[in-house]
Amino acid sequence: MASILDRDPDADKKMDTRNSIASDFAEDAVVHDFSYCPSFARVFRSLGAMSLTMAVASDLTSIASFAWESSSSICTIIGLFIGWILTNPIIFMVAIATCAAWFFTASIRMDKASLVFITSATLILVSSVCFIIRLPVIQKTRGIPFTSVGTVFRDYTNYSNWDKPVSVRFTFFYAAWVFTGWNAPSAVAEETHDTRIVAPHSIINVHCLQAGIGMLFCILLASVLPTWKQQYLALPSVTGYAAFTLIIERWGLKAAGAFLLIIFLNTSISGAAVLVIISYQTAAFARDRGMLFNDKLSYVLPQRFSPITSETIYSLAIIAVMVPGLWNMGRLSKTVHVLGFFTVVYMSKIECFPPQAD
């Protein structure tokens, strides 16, 4: 398995200039560093038809599920303001609009897409600061006691059928995988100079920042809910989530509704980032002749400097995330993939063999 740090310095010169991706991105050799070795093409070419068939069902359900979840959350928050009675046709129309917004966001030129990510990151930062400061301040001004430090960091209630050694480890595994899947900086690696250094650092920084903010939110919620069950049962559930119900009760409907709406809108924008990431992976894989219709999938539109065919196909949910993950991760590549393999095996075992037969 080749390391990107041990890469041939003359690889740029050896690239076929007739290939659109190789010629457009030869300056930074990004596609070579962050895509697939040609040796894998022969193996996966025979699996192309099967992967494509499985991909249709996989991505249709995953994108439809995420769009429905985002739209139902947005409709619920809007309904709190105007008394909107949600029906399936309304949620369906909002889900269609969400998919259209993903396509529009993914169609922005890569050199201008940074504005979308900067705006999204700014909204997340401002809303997070408001949450971290406002919630404990209101808790203090109302004279509501905080949970003791010992209870927050030492008390653990296991609601799983598994014992603590399994349930705690499984929870951390899931959290790590969720954070890893939403690192938007990898989507703009194709427009980054010195990518072999900048992109990994950016991904690691975003991962740590997301994990840190999530941990801070969890600690804060645990601190302001001294008697979680009693507090939740005493509040009228308008969202179905204890944390959201608590925020509405503490902040008021207008402030809490605006805060939650910002969260859900930013979550919807993340769908476009996923489409961009996967489309570039597909185009790079097709460049190495490892896909069906390689010339079409690897074509880069000169006006946008992006693989327009791959983006369009993914926006229509035709090809799924059945494309194998990135292999070249530097000197620790083998270690990362070995740990990832055993993690997947462990998680699959836990999911397929529950502690109880029912």
From TrEMBL:
Keyword Transport: yes
Membrane topology (UniProt): Multi-pass membrane protein
Gene Ontology molecular function, alphabetical: transmembrane transporter activity
Keyword Transmembrane carried by entry: yes
Location in the cell: Membrane
Gene3D superfamilies: Amino acid/polyamine transporter I
Any one annotated GO CC term: membrane
Residue ranges that the Swiss-Prot or TrEMBL entry lists as coiled coil: none
Protein name: Amino acid permease/ SLC12A domain-containing protein
Source organism per UniProt: Gibberella moniliformis (strain M3125 / FGSC 7600)
